[in-house]
TrEMBL record:
InterPro entries: Cadherin_5, DUF5801, LapA-like_RM
Disordered as annotated region, ranges: 58-91
Sequence ranges of Low complexity compositional bias: 58-73
Residue stretches making up the Cadherin-like domain: 229-281, 297-389
Record organism: Aeromonas bestiarum
Domain DUF5801: 553-654
Name the UniProt record assigns to this protein: Retention module-containing protein
Gene3D superfamilies in UniProt: 2.40.30.290, 2.60.40.1200
């Protein structure tokens, strides 16, 4: 129940108490107010709103004698004093005086008249406490106002008109003006700070009688709080105000909103005033974001959220990313992929999500991502650090595994070859290599093309082959970031080669070794193979077969079983005639030797000739067949040799 404080400013007596009325004691405690108590100026009462309190003026100072009246005789001890005939005090009045002096409630012993001297009981005139003839300006005033007490401003006489008890001069004096004042306080405190101060700093108390102090205070739902008690408003903070005015306000963590004003009552022992303590919290930048650091394996996507480490207790909005920079890329649009050549691609979204795609085989440093976070009011800067862990990548060579060799040249193209062609004497090619971890070295035919990741820059680079020909490196393309590269080369045939039988009779090859080593020691090897075709000798028939020579034989000789002597037993086809039938070519290897032979394919080859048989029709006997042994071809029939063809392998004579 609500209560208010009333400070007594004149001496009064408590005539009646109904409800909860407490008197505040000097030690700060309180007790219920009792009927009949005499209250001195400065006494403090706490009165409940529904309480009823009746107070009557009280003056215990002796009344002054009437100037014209004779001094009364001194009383004789032990003897009753007879009243003065002219100024005798009514017994009822005397009894009333005695009751008041003893602190007894007069209403319990006498019939009370209303203020203003209503007729007393028994039909008498207006009086005090029901006593007829009492002064019309005296008596009790009953206060029937909830939660308040009103000090009666009426006096009364206890000796009728001749011996007033109350000093009418004193009663006529106006009440003193309340010179106690407090202007209130308007103070600020930083968010998450603590504010100490004193609410009496602005108090003016010129007339006392006591030093100003705080009686009680209210804050939010905390009403009429006893000074020195700490109270809390959830989510706002805690407040304690002490009697000496000192106070401490502690805002709730991270709170920077409105603070209800605190009202407090100040007293100087007589008067009271109400005042207000207004508090304002100065917001602090509570948003924070710890830096992010991620590690990923080479060739692996990296995703996450930049706001995972963000702390924002007071908003007003959810934190978001407003912009970022990465290497040479400054403030690109959020949600748009951006690329650092050779490093990778990054996309950052407003909600903090991001995706980083490393460049293929890249395991080097990644520039730091700088980004800005806001909560709608405050902003902070933060960073994302990305590290890529390398993996052991294999090394490889390509373009060196061609069947039959990478290059093929023919001796026939030589100037002394069977088909001279200077352009055909030089052939070109290319092979590729890859070392994702970086190339440590690359050699070709024992010559270093790349060393410590640095390729040679002087071209052409000639390499003399074991056969005396020339392999020339015409260029190298190498990307240290990706580890990919290629080598361009050419091979020139300078002269005919010695093709030995039987292995290299038609073709002769030579190889150039290729060795690739990466930065962590992985290696692979291959060979660049060149094939040189032999310009072999060739023979063609001369044009114009009409120039072919012929021979004539006649079997009519007796020695051959004939009957005459004009037969021809044998004949020869000259070497010159035979040689004239052929056009030999020795090729680039130079002139050698020419040999001749008869060529008969198979055995018992039909010759188209028949033996003579007189008994047979038309004398045609058995067919003659051909068989070759060495340089001799024999025609026979029925086991009988009829003729032979013999060739000279050196001259070709038949």
């Amino acid at each position: 129940m609500d209560m208010r404080t009333q400070v007594i400013d004149k001496t009064v007596v408590v005539s009646s108490v109904e409800g909860n009325v407490q008197i505040l004691l000097a030690d700060g405690s309180s007790r219920p107010l009792q009927k009949g108590e005499i209250l001195q100026p400065g006494a403090k009462l706490n009165i409940a709103d529904d309480a009823k309190l009746i107070l009557a003026p009280y003056d215990d100072s002796p009344a002054s004698a009437t100037p014209d009246a004779a001094a009364p005789d001194a009383p004789v001890p032990g003897q009753p004093q007879a009243p003065d005939a002219g100024s005798a005090t009514s017994p009822d009045i005397a009894a009333l005086q005695q009751s008041i002096l003893q602190g007894v409630d007069p209403t319990q012993n006498f019939e009370a008249s209303a203020a203003g001297g209503a007729p007393a009981a028994g039909g008498g005139g207006g009086g005090i406490g029901g006593v007829a003839g009492a002064s019309g300006n005296g008596g009790f005033v009953t206060i029937d106002r909830t939660g308040d007490a009103t000090i009666a401003a009426a006096g009364f006489d206890t000796t009728y008109q001749t011996e007033p008890v109350v000093d009418t001069q004193q009663l006529a004096e106006p009440l003193l003006t309340n010179e106690l004042a407090d202007q209130g306080e308007q103070l600020t405190v930083p968010e998450d700070g603590v504010l100490n101060g004193n609410v009496l700093t602005n108090t003016v108390n010129a007339d006392g009688p006591d030093a100003a102090s705080v009686l009680f205070f209210s804050w939010g739902d905390n009403v009429n709080v006893v000074v020195g008690t700490s109270v809390t408003i959830d989510g706002v903070g805690s407040l304690v105000i002490n009697a000496d005015g000192s106070f401490t306000f502690t805002p709730a963590p991270n709170y920077d909103g409105a603070v209800p004003p605190a009202t407090y009552t100040v007293t100087d022992g007589t008067d009271t005033v109400q005042s207000t303590l207004a508090l304002t919290i100065i917001p602090a930048n509570d948003i924070s974001d710890q830096n992010e650091s991620v590690v990923a394996t080479e060739d692996t996507l990296i995703s996450g959220n930049l706001l995972a480490n963000t702390i924002d207790n007071d908003g007003p909005q959810a934190p978001s990313v407003t912009g970022f920079s990465w290497g040479s890329i400054i403030n690109p649009a959020l949600g748009t992929p951006v690329t650092l050549t050779g490093v990778g691609t990054l996309v950052v979204n407003a909600d903090g999500s991001y995706l980083f795609t490393p460049a293929p085989n890249y395991d080097g440093p990644v520039p730091t991502v700088n980004y800005t976070v806001t909560d709608g009011t405050d902003t902070v800067q933060s960073t994302l650090s990305i590290a890529i862990t390398s993996v052991d990548e294999p090394v490889g060579l390509a373009g060196l595994q061609l069947d039959g060799g990478e290059l093929t040249l023919n001796e026939a193209a030589l100037a002394d070859g069977s088909n001279p062609n200077a352009t055909a004497l030089t052939q070109s090619g290319v092979f590729t290599f890859n070392a994702a971890d970086g190339v440590q070295s690359l050699t070709l035919g024992g010559v270093t093309l790349i060393s410590n990741g640095q390729a040679i820059t002087v071209f052409p680079q000639a390499i003399t082959s074991p056969l005396g020909n020339q392999l020339v490196v015409t260029g190298i393309n190498y990307n240290p970031v990706t580890g990919l590269g290629s080598v361009n080369y050419s091979y020139t045939l300078s002269d005919n080669e010695n093709h030995t039988k039987p292995v290299n009779d038609a073709a002769l090859g030579e190889s150039f070794g290729v060795v690739l080593v990466d930065t962590d020691g992985d290696s692979t090897s291959g060979s660049l193979d060149v094939v040189i075709l032999d310009d072999v000798p060739s023979v063609t028939l001369t044009s114009g077969s009409e120039g072919v020579g012929s021979v004539f034989v006649d079997e009519s000789l007796v020695s051959l079983g004939g009957a005459g002597n004009d037969g021809v037993a044998s004949a020869s086809l000259s070497a010159a005639t035979v040689q004239a039938q052929f056009n030999p070519a020795f090729g680039a290897d130079g002139a050698g030797t020419i040999g001749y032979s008869l060529a008969l394919t198979g055995s018992n080859v039909a010759s188209g000739l028949f033996a003579v048989d007189p008994q047979a029709p038309a004398g045609q006997g058995e067919a003659i067949v051909l068989n070759q042994v060495g340089n001799v071809i024999t025609g026979s029939a029925g086991g009988v040799d009829y003729f032979t063809l013999t060739i000279n392998p050196s001259t070709g004579e038949v």
